[in-house]
Amino acid sequence: MIVIQGKGVSKGVASGPIYFFQRASATITDAPAADIEAEKARIAAAQDKSAQQLNALADKARAEAGDETAILFETHAMFVEDDDYVECMMNALEEKRCTAERAVEKAEVRLDELAQQAQDAASDYLKLQDVYKEREELEDELARLYAQWERLAAELEEAKG
Questions:
Q1: Which of 24, 72, 134, 145 is the most buried (most CB within 10 A)?
Q2: Which band of pLDDT confidence, cut at 50, 70 and 90, is reported for residue 92?
């Protein structure tokens, strides 16, 4: 028996044939772009085509599998048009004078870095919340012990009395 593991992208159990997708490898060169405006146009055309394809897949998924599955493709279409993503690509073109492919790669790396920073910040925030909760618990315990100490001190004074 062969066991294949991965990330689930929707609820439930599925059965059927497995298809392995392998992307055609693209050669990304470090050579400078000859025409930055042409590279910008290539990115814009790729964005339009990608958004159209993803929205068509979303429509097909909605018809065949429901809204939850369609949302996956719609979300990817939103990424293609994301202002931060586009800005990263355009900045790479302008600053590095690189090809469209290299600009896309640089934008993906930058956004991955930003996502990791956000995840780290969220993790730090949650850790800090745990520390605050622990502090509150310790303060409650100290207050309880102090009240007990006051009661015992009063009883001791009364017993001396």
A1: 72
A2: very high
